[in-house]
Amino acid sequence: MTIELTILAWGCILAIVHIFATVRFKTRQYGSKWNMGPRDEELAPPDPITGRLSRAQANFFETFPIAIAGILIVHSAHLETRWTAFGAIAWLAARVVYLPLYALGVPVLRTIVFLVSIVGLALILRPALAFTFG
Predict the structure, then answer these.
(1) Which candidate, 59, 54, 47, places its Cα nearest to that of 110?
(2) Is there a contact between 35 and 23 (Cβ–Cβ < 8 Å)?
(3) Per residue in 98-125, pLDDT tens?
(4) Which residue from 127, 58, 59 is spatially nearest to 88, judged by alpha carbons?
(5) The CATH number of 3-38+46-133 is which of 3.30.70.260, 2.40.400.10, 3.30.300.30, 1.20.120.550?
(6) pTM value?
(7) Residues 22, 57: contact at Cβ < 8 Å?
């Protein structure tokens, strides 16, 4: 299995971590009855960490489909290079670091880490775009 596909599998694990981290703090704030219920009621605004975890999760799920598509494109077209592997590793490492930074409310460094993940996505997609246009 390629490095890129392994990173994709670890990205799936990180998605599960996002889901469970967010729901754990929501349950802590709103209670297990809310967690196991239909969740139809209006809720109080989330406390700061719950809100940050929810936003971090939403941010992850905005970029994860791009990582999935990019990795599957380069894999299916046999365009993997050391740069696509590096991009995939950079994307995942940045996304792992991003979660606690966002949860802790670290402002500037969090944005820099996010940009590293975007550069990683660009490195993954580059060979597919070069193949198409060059």
Answers:
(1) 59
(2) yes
(3) 999 999 999 999 999 999 999 999 999 9
(4) 127
(5) 1.20.120.550
(6) 0.92
(7) yes
